[in-house]
């Protein structure tokens, strides 16, 4: 059975942005509520930060948190969510391994009237998703492509034409096909790159330009390294590769390893990224990776904890700013989107160090 809250019209969600005040007993009931948080993997630095930040923010609001990592294993994540439901969780926050693979546990949650917040990655093909907290994912792809163009000299930082005219060779990498974000990043990037590809200013010598052909299952760096090595062996024997659209830092490092194994360096092709993970920021400082996209996981955790706290107190979360874009195959999930920031060697200190995300010592 669906909870009454789920049938509130979207307009009412916006109008109720301030939320009706909760009664004393609702607040009482919400205090100390168990929140089940499931994250995809500990193998990437960002998800460790995300998990810790959400836990800290929810605990600061007086809630209890069961935080689990699925290690990129779908059955494992299904079981973790079922365990949390059985343990009496009052709300679930889920960053999925495979966004379409959780319809059964989500139905169990709905049957037990447990609200669900999709964290960073949209939960697909289920009506039982209440809210979504993430970043402007299409914009992430736009920024990645723009920084590729800037790095190649085809464009300047302010968007005007750059000093180079090309043509340049590039290769394209996308994220995991079972992660809704991967499509958003790729579409965002292609919206910028397409005119350059159409005019021949950018050339993909492998011919691999379709999303399905360029995906990287589970965002795995080793998978990306192998694909890059194959492409270098088949398409770049006599021609140099100038740039690589990479959607995520773990993939970027795999690509750079392949490039090093094939004689590239000390000057490298322009390689993009995402997440501002420590090894990649160091790589940017060392003139290897060109750029990354910074997404402040502290802000995402804060927004999600505010959303969760409001839902537990049976208020409409005030933090919603997108009621249109995230159709999950069954419904449009009301979302809050945060802004990503494009980072390269020129602005990493201002963006990452001055904001307190990293210290100078960590980056040495
Ligand atoms: C995506 C996320 C990216 C990156 C990637 C690999 O869902 O939006 O920021 O972390 O997963 O973990």
Characterize the structure shown.
The structure is a single chain. The protein is an alpha/beta fold. It has two domains: about 10-130 and about 295-340, Rossmann fold, CATH 3.40.50.2300; about 135-295, Rossmann fold (3-Layer(aba) Sandwich). It is about 40% helix and about 15% strand. The chain has 14 helices and twelve strands. The strands form three sheets. The chain has a six-stranded parallel β-sheet with strand order 2-1-3-4-5-11, sandwiched between helices. A four-stranded parallel β-sheet has the order 7-6-8-9, with helices on both faces. Strands 10-12 form a two-stranded antiparallel sheet. Helix 3 packs parallel to helix 12 and helix 6 runs parallel beside helix 7 (about 180-200). The longest helix has 20 residues, at about 180-200. It is elongated. Residues about 1-30 have low confidence and may be disordered. The chain binds beta-D-galactopyranose. Beta-D-galactopyranose binds near residues 46, 121 and 275.
Q: Whole-number average pLDDT?
A: 92
Bound molecules: beta-D-galactopyranose
Tell how many strands the DSSP assignment holds. Answer: 12
- Distance separating the two termini: 54 Å
Tally of domains: 2
| Sheet with most strands | 6 strands, parallel
Tally of helical runs: 14
The CATH architecture of the largest domain can be given as: 3-Layer(aba) Sandwich
CATH topology of the largest domain: Rossmann fold
Instruction: Label the overall shape.
Output: elongated
Q: Can you say what the CATH homologous superfamily of the largest domain is?
A: Response regulator
Spell the H/E element sequence.
Answer: HHEHEHEHEEHEHEHHEHEHEHEEHH
């Amino acid at each position: 059975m669906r909870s009454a809250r789920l049938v509130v019209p979207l307009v009412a969600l916006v109008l109720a942005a301030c939320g009706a005040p909760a009664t004393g007993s609702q607040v009482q009931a919400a205090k100390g509520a168990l929140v089940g948080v499931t994250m995809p993997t500990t193998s990437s630095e960002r998800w460790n930060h995300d998990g810790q930040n959400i836990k800290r923010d929810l605990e600061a609001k007086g809630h209890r948190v069961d935080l689990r990592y699925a290690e990129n294993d779908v059955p494992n994540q299904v079981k973790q969510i079922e365990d949390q439901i059985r343990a009496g969780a009052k709300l679930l926050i889920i960053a999925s391994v495979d966004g379409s693979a959780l319809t059964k546990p989500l139905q169990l949650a709905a049957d037990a009237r447990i609200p669900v917040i999709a964290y960073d990655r949209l939960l697909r093909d289920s009506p039982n998703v209440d809210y979504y907290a993430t970043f402007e994912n299409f914009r992430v792809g736009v920024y990645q492509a723009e920084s590729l163009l800037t790095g190649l000299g085809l464009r300047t930082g302010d968007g005007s034409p750059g000093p180079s005219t090309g043509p340049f060779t590039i290769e394209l990498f996308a994220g995991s096909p079972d992660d809704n974000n991967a499509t958003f990043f790729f579409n965002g990037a292609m919206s910028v790159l397409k005119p350059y590809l159409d005019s021949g200013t950018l050339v993909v010598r492998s011919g691999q330009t379709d999303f399905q052909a360029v995906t990287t299952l589970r965002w795995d760096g080793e998978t990306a390294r192998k694909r890059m090595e194959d492409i270098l062996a088949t398409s770049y024997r006599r021609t140099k590769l100038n740039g690589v659209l990479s959607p995520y830092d773990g993939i970027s490092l795999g690509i750079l390893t392949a490039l090093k194994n094939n004689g590239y360096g000390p000057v490298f092709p322009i390689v993009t990224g995402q997440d501002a993970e420590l090894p990649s920021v160091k790589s940017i400082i060392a003139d290897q990776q060109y750029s990354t996209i910074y997404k402040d996981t502290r802000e995402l955790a804060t927004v999600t904890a505010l959303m969760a706290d409001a839902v537990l107190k049976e208020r409409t979360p005030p933090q919603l700013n997108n009621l249109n874009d995230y159709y999950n195959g069954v419904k449009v999930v009301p979302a809050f989107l945060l802004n990503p920031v494009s980072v390269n060697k020129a602005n990493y200190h201002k963006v990452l160090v001055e904001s307190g995300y990293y210290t100078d010592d960590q980056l040495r």
